[in-house]
Design goal:
Helix content is 33%, strand content 14%. It has 291 residues and is of the alpha/beta class.
């Protein structure tokens, strides 16, 4: 299958984006890679991230040619406790580190309806980025990430669950690699029942699941055998009727174009164009209507 889309790209305005990634360059390089549809998805997690998103939207609106180029956002799971802490800190506050301790329940997202309307957000991808409240222990982290994936799959405003089972920030070796915990020595330590439950939630709520290049399949910090096991996981989701979204998770500089390197993986899994999600053809986001 020839890859023509990429729904997970970061700009130079994103906290994790790199300088030298103007949107005009993203457009040009994405099209040179053969893409016809793609979207920018900078992070929205708190009030601190709002000014950068506004700058990104201004740059997007100023583009001379936006054909096939869409405007989305990426959100990460938070707890109600985290929103309360951020509110107390004001616009400068941001709870974003590895958050051990505290309650594991009360999951939420930072999605002010008026901001989504102001930014004319076309779609939302959401991912588990932190083991919220869980101890740094394998089973606890697995349960936390599964809980977050289920929450995202069922959320009425989330269109795509980003990079399921992506991991970073703990259990690295001296070279920055993840070779054992939490699931890299054997991805099958995650119970099959969790995959079943997640797939059922995604199908029930019409939520797509992202096939991510940089963060998952092509991640150089993951062990060699992970890619094959992750393909096996994606193939299982496909058997359960899940739709997929393609995302490079490109952070620049420029646009990496590595999404096209997933074509062999898609062929092996058996994914066709009909299995892929794309945003609804709208110009503005209506929070009341959800997706």
């Amino acid at each position: 299958m020839t890859i023509r889309c990429d729904w997970h790209i970061h700009s130079q305005h994103s906290p994790c984006g790199k300088p030298g990634t103007p949107l005009a360059l993203v457009c040009d390089q994405a099209r040179r890679c053969g893409l016809t549809d793609f979207g920018i998805t900078d992070h929205l997690n708190d009030r601190k991230s709002e000014p950068a998103l506004r700058r990104c939207r201004q740059e997007y609106d100023a583009l001379a040619d936006r054909k096939g180029f869409h405007f989305g956002v990426e959100v990460g799971c938070l707890r109600l406790r985290d929103l309360e802490v951020n509110d107390s800190l004001g616009e400068s506050g941001s709870v974003g580190g590895v958050q051990e301790g505290g309650p594991e329940n009360g999951l939420t997202l930072y999605l002010p309806p008026e901001l989504l309307d102001e930014l004319k957000v076309e779609y939302i991808i959401g991912g588990a980025h932190l083991p919220l409240g869980a101890t740094m222990e394998r089973d606890a982290v697995i349960r936390s990430y599964h809980r977050q994936n289920l929450f995202l799959a069922a959320h009425p405003l989330v269109d795509v669950v980003a990079h399921p089972w992506r991991w970073m920030g703990h259990w690295q070796d001296e070279k920055g690699r993840y070779l054992t915990l939490p699931w890299f020595d054997d991805f099958r330590v995650i119970p099959r029942s969790m995959h079943d439950e997640f797939a059922a939630a995604a199908v029930e709520h019409g939520t797509a699941v992202e096939i991510n290049a940089h963060a998952c399949l092509l991640n150089p910090d993951y062990p060699e055998g992970f890619r094959a096991q992750y393909r096996e996981y994606l193939a299982g989701l496909k058997e359960r009727g899940v739709r997929f979204s393609l995302g490079s998770d490109s952070h620049g500089p420029g646009y990496t174009g590595r999404i096209v390197e997933l074509e062999p993986d898609l062929r092996e899994i058996g994914i066709a164009q009909d299995d892929l999600w794309r945003p609804a053809p709208v110009n503005t986001f209506n929070p009341a209507a959800g997706r």
